[in-house]
Amino acid sequence: MDRSLLRDDVYRRLRDAIVDGTFVPGEQLKDGDLAEWLGVSRTPVREALLRLGASGLVVAVPGRSTTVSTIDPRAVRDARDVLAAMHGLAVRETAGRLPEEEVSRMRDANRRFAEALSAGDVAAALDADEELHRVPVAALGNRALEAVLEQFEPLVRRAELLRFSGDGRTPVERHDRLIELLAAGDAEGAASVNFDIWHSLPADDPAAER
After folding, report:
1. Chain region(s) in the chain for CATH 1.20.120.530
2. 149: burial class by Cβ within 10 Å (0-12, 13-18, 19+)?
3. Nearest to 106, CA basis, from 194, 167, 180
4. Who has the most CB within 10 Å: 22, 51, 70, 138?
5. Sign of CA dihedral 97, 101, 105, 110
6. pLDDT tens, position by position, 90-108
7. pLDDT by residue (tens digit) across 170-193?
8. DSSP one-letter code for 40
9. Buried b vs exposed e over 124-141: b needs ≥16 C-beta within 10 Å?
10. CATH number of 3-68
11. Using one digit for the tens of pLDDT, what is the confidence trace for 112-124?
12. Reported pTM
C-alpha cells in the first residue's frame, strides 16, 4: 500500500476505535502493541497518534505514555462551536443549489438515522448522521473547511454517542426541517436549524466527563 494511504488508514482505524469505545478513556496506547494489532510498522502508528493528539483524542506525555483522553465538556463545546460554524457555512452556500439526487441522499440518510435510533444501533445512527451532514460539505467543495472538520469531528462524535443513546426524535425532526429549507433555498433558515442541531449536543452535561 502507498505510504500516504497506509498512514491515513492507520489513523482512521485508531480514530474509530477511540470514538466507538474500543479504546476507553484513560487507556494507555503503546505503539508496539498497536502496530502488532494493525499489522503495520510502528512509524504510521506514531504518526497517527500525533494526529489524534492534535484532535484531542489522545494525550501524550513525551518519553512516558500516550493515553486515550477523557471527554472534556469544554473541549467538546469548543469543537462543537467550530463544527457548527463550518457546517453553517456549507448550508448557507449550498441552499437552493443542491441537485435533487443530493437532497434525496440526505432524506435517505435521515430515514436510516431514524431506523438505527429505533433499533438502538448508535454506531449506525452516527454513520447516517455524518453522511447527511456531509452532503452540503461535499457539494461546497471547500478543502480548508473539510480539513477543519476532519480534525475536530472525531472529538464531537464521541459526545454524540451520549446524545443518540437517548431520545433521538428531535434530531430526526430537525434533520427533516434542515433538508426542506435547503431544498427551498432558504439559506438563513437552514443555517438557523443547523445551529440548533449542533448546539443540542450535551457538551455541558457532567455525565460527559467520562
Report:
1. 73-208
2. buried
3. 180
4. 51
5. positive
6. 999 999 999 999 999 999 9
7. 789 999 999 999 999 999 999 999
8. S
9. bbbebbebbbbbbbebbe
10. 1.10.10.10
11. 999 998 998 888 8
12. 0.83
| Burial profile 36-62: b = 16 or more Cβ within 10 angstroms, e = fewer | eebebeeebbebbbebbeebbbbbeee
Residues 125-167 pLDDT 10s: 889 999 999 999 999 999 999 999 999 999 898 877 766 655 5
pLDDT score of 80 more than 90: yes
Domain 73-208 = CATH 1.20.1080.10: no
The segment(s) of the chain belonging to CATH 1.10.10.10 are 3-68
Cβ atoms of 59 and 67 closer than 8 Å? yes
CA nearest neighbour of 135 among 177, 174, 87: 87
Residue 24 has what DSSP assignment?
-
* Cβ(109)–Cβ(132) below 8 Å: yes
